[in-house]
Design brief:
The structure is a single chain. By secondary structure, this protein is of the alpha+beta class. The chain contains 9 helices and 12 strands. The chain has a 5-stranded mixed sheet with strand order 1-4-10-11-12, with helices on both faces. Strands 3-8-5 form a 3-stranded antiparallel sheet. A two-stranded antiparallel sheet has the order 2-9. Strand 10, helix 9 and strand 11 form a beta-alpha-beta unit. It is elongated. It starts with 11 loop residues before the first strand and ends with a strand.
Length: 298
Amino acid sequence: MGDSAKPSHPKSFTKYMSASTGRQVLMNSTLRWSSPVLFNDPFDVPKEIAYGITPADIYKALGEKMYSLIENPPNDTAHLKPEIRKIIESVRGKTIEVRKRFIEESKKDPDPYQPDNTLLQEFQDLWRRLLPDFRILCLTESHTHTAMWMHYADKYSGLALVFDCSEKLDSAWREARPVSYGTETMSLFTAEGWAEIFTLPDDIARKRILELATYTKSSDWSYEKEWRITSYKRPNDTGPYTDYRFDPKELSHIYLGPLIETADVDHIKTLATKYPNAHLTQVKIGMGNEFVFNELSD
């Protein structure tokens, strides 16, 4: 399979940045993995989960979820919380009439499926504690995207670095996961979404929350084709970020933005000499509203 970890996994990733950041990255052979508390986009990794949702909201939604499961019990219940699984398996072989009567009787009980109120608070407190120590590196699939050059490379005056996913070098990029774009992230902001989470075993629920908060974004951002790698702070870190080193051999291309300053180009050319596999390319804006790539000679 070559150097690619998985058939569907990109063979390389791009990181856009300003020229000043690029100089630091190339000087130190490090990339900054940030805590989500530093993210500018308020619709990205949420700072709070279940914000504005009360246990009573979830209790009501969980009841409706349970009635739905009883009326149409799934064949596979392995993903359900044990006490819920027991209920669903007990009615699965019954007729629809019996299941409907079961639901009607359940509705007479004032607290048939009330979740543990402390569990929601536990999830919220856990998230607040985790967020500052969480580390995320954001990457993308392409070095040719106009909007990415505009927003993340200092309005075309920065650069884009391309890193190969090398199996031989055990590249961290091989662990990257794609961001899912759509409405699924809203599960963390609705009672119905939390009712779904509360049907899961606690350990699976925690993983689900982390996945939804980290790897889902609004479809408005789908053009970014973002991939992410997650980690946690090191013991000696004092700020909400960690600068992790990468192997110089992993850097395969350095693309210089079309509006980059000449002084930055000269500095980056010098720094690029320590990267044996890196091709230095000047990006220009062509006549047909597209980029032109001119590889620079040594």
